[in-house]
Amino acid sequence: STAPFPLVVNGAEVRQFPVRAAPGAKACVARKLEYPGEGERFVFQRWSHGLATECVDLAEPGEYRALFTQEVLLQVRSRARAYAQSLWMPKGQLQRLAVPEVVPQEPGVRFRFAEWSAGETPTDRENTIAMVRPVVLEVKWTKEYSVKVEGPAGVPVAGSGWYGEREAVTLRAPVEVYAEGRRERLRFIRWESTGDRAAVIPNVQSPTTLLLAEGPYV
C-alpha cells in the first residue's frame, strides 16, 4: 500500500508489507479515506492493476498495490465571503489562487484587494502556495464605501468617490455661485445627509468640512 494503514488479506489485518498470499486470496482496503492528523488525509484511488473497487481477488501471480493520494487541507479566509473556501489538495502540489481587484458586497459597499497573508506573491491578486502541509491562508481586503455629493444643477461640489473604512472625506462647495449676468446667485447654507444611512457631518454650515466614511452616504 502507498498509505501507512493496514490492508485486509483473507479477512486478516496486515500492517507489514509486502505480504505474500496464495492465488485466489482476497485483498481489501480497510477504509477508502484515512485521516492521520488534522488537515491531512489519504484517499484510495485504485489498485495498481487498474481496478478501483475496495476489494480485489488475487487471481494471478504478481504485485498488487493499493494506491492512495495524500492530501492536505487549504483553508482560505476572507471578509469577502465569496472567496472563503476549504479545499483538499494533493500534497506537494503548487496551488494557484486568484481574486479580483474589487468585489461588490451590497449597494454602496465593496471590498478592494489588499494582500495575501502568505504565498510566493502575497501582494499580487494572483498568488501561488506550495501545499507541503495544511495551510490557513487569508486574503485581506480594504472595505470601501461610496460617498455621493450632490448639489443644485450647475454648482460644482466635490467629495464623491469610494473611500476606505473610516477614511476622511473632504466635502467642498463654493460659498456663492452667480447666474449669468450676475443678477442672481446661489449662496451656500449647509450640508444635509439625504441617503438611507445618516452621515455625521461636523461643521454642517462650513462649505468645506470633513466626515469619516463609516457607511455609504449621500
Give a written overview of the molecule:
This protein is an all-beta fold. Helix content is 0%, strand content 46%. The protein has no helices and 18 strands. The protein has strands at residues 7-9, 12-14, 26-29, 33-37, 40-47, 55-57, 66-78, 85-90, 94-98, 102-106, 109-116, 126-130, 135-147, 161-164, 168-172, 176-178, 185-187, 208-212. The strands form 5 sheets. Strands 4, 5, 7, 8, 10, 11, 13 and 14 form an 8-stranded mixed sheet that branches. A hairpin with a 6-residue loop joins β16 and β17 (185-187). The model has no long low-confidence stretch (mean pLDDT 94).
Looking at this protein, list some descriptive labels:
rod-shaped; 218 residues; eight-stranded mixed sheet; mainly beta; 46% strand; four-stranded antiparallel sheet
Unreliable segments (pLDDT under 50, ≥5 consecutive)? none
Largest sheet: 8 strands, mixed
Distance between the termini: 66 Å
| Silhouette | rod-shaped
Topology as H/E string? EEEEEEEEEEEEEEEEEE
Work out the helix count.
0
What amount of the residues lies in strands? over 45%
Number of strands: 18
Rg: 32 Å
Main structural class: mainly beta
> Whole-number average pLDDT?
94
Report helical residue fraction: under 10%
